[in-house]
Amino acid sequence: MTRPLFGLAVMILVAGGATAAGADAVTVDGTTYPMDRVLLCEPYEEYGSRQELELQGLHQGDGGRAQVDIAITVMGTLVIQEVSWSGPEGLFNRQGTPDETLFEVADDRVRGALEIADAYGRSASVRISFDIGLPEDYFACR
């Protein structure tokens, strides 16, 4: 099933790690973080680009706070996906090249599995997989 996102029909396929149906979780280098709260940010347009999807998954556990950010930005005809992670492992992200598939949006869920790099440019990286449901209501993130 394809979920239309703000005028953009997104059906992107990628091999990914799966969790139990309905569970919202992120796994980073073998450690699974259940998402306590998931926010679907209101879409916005700025400087000629549209933020088609901005999803924030939040975890608060004994090991501290963690957050995954998953986004789709459209600039003209180019579609750019981005995944960021902030947790006990550090701060990591990956921005795909135009039209590169990093994750899928289907059946009201966002799923993916990929390697993301240290945000500070060091050679470290982590393997992240996620399976997160899209909330029905938008949240004013700005």
Explained architecture:
- This protein has no helices and 14 strands.
- The strands form 2 sheets. Strands 3, 4, 5, 6, 7, 8, 9, 10, 11, 12, 13 and 14 form a 12-stranded mixed beta sheet that branches.
- About 11% of the residues have low confidence.
Largest sheet: 12 strands, mixed
SSE series: EEEEEEEEEEEEEE
Proportion of β residues?
over 45%
Estimated radius of gyration: 14 Å
- Overall average residue pLDDT: 86
Number of strands: 14
Helix count from the secondary structure assignment: 0
Shape verdict: globular
Question: In a nutshell, what does this entry contain?
Answer:
With 142 residues, this protein is an all-beta fold. The protein is built from no helices and 14 strands.
Characteristic terms for this protein:
61% strand, 12-stranded mixed sheet, globular, mainly beta, two-stranded antiparallel ribbon, 0% helix, 14 strands, 142 residues
How do the helices and strands line up, and which of them pair or pack?
Blueprint: E1 3-5, E2 8-10, E3 25-28, E4 31-34, E5 37-41, E6 44-46, E7 49-61, E8 64-75, E9 78-87, E10 90-95, E11 104-106, E12 109-118, E13 125-133, E14 138-139
